[in-house]
Design a protein that fits this description.
By secondary structure, this protein is an alpha+beta fold. It folds into 2 domains: 69 residues, Luciferase, Domain 3 (Luciferase, domain 3); 101 residues, ANL, C-terminal domain (GMP Synthetase, Chain A, domain 3, 2-Layer Sandwich). It is built from 4 helices and 13 strands. Strands 1-2-5-6 form a 4-stranded antiparallel sheet, covered by helices on one side. Strand 9 and strand 10 form a beta hairpin. The protein is elongated.
């Protein structure tokens, strides 16, 4: 996404506790400038939620900074999965799954109780491909570069994903509800 556009605009990456993370570490994108200091009119609770100490505004997006200070967007913070091994950002898992040549689309959600959620990948295959145990294993193997808790514990083949913007964005809440209702 680039670097801050001026000397009076700061960008950093924080963990869930408001601790600054280093280069290459994925966390919540925060910004600080004269334009981001303020409050939500008549909503003190929302104001408290929107800021970390030190006037760092939380747009509730996730990403990382590289060693040169360039910002990379990863996901919406509200879409994160609370797995047993730690936080999982669905977009990063989807990117790994989409590298498989048989996959045309993918949506990743967490199923189960927070802190113990399973990472589940719902996959739409190309028209000439059929789901199989072998294909599940291939797709899972393609996520080996992710941390263990980020790798899908389950791959499910679906005919379509609930999307908006002409298919550009998976509606993760609708997908989560649909997958949770299946046996």
């Amino acid at each position: 996404m680039g670097r801050p556009g001026g000397p009076f605009f700061e960008v950093a990456i924080f963990d869930d506790n408001g601790k600054r993370l280093g280069a290459g570490q994925v966390g919540e994108i925060v910004v600080r400038s004269a334009m981001s200091i303020g409050e939500y009119w008549g909503l003190p609770g929302k104001t408290r939620e929107a800021f970390f100490p030190g006037d760092w505004f939380r747009p509730f997006d996730v990403g990382y900074l590289d060693g040169d200070g360039f910002l990379y967007y990863a996901d919406r913070a509200g879409d994160k999965i609370a797995a047993a091994g730690g936080v999982v950002f669905p977009h990063l898992v989807e990117t790994a799954v989409l590298r498989h040549e048989a996959v045309v689309s993918c949506g990743v959600v967490g199923l189960g109780e927070p802190g113990e959620q399973q990472v589940v990948a719902a996959v739409v295959l190309k028209a000439d491909r059929t789901g199989s145990t072998e294909l599940v294993e291939e797709i899972m193997a393609g996520t080996a570069d992710l941390a263990g808790h980020e790798q899908p514990s389950k791959v499910m083949f679906v005919d379509e994903l609930p999307t908006v913007l002409g298919g550009a964005k998976v509606q993760r809440q609708a997908l989560r509800e649909r997958l949770a209702a299946q046996p």
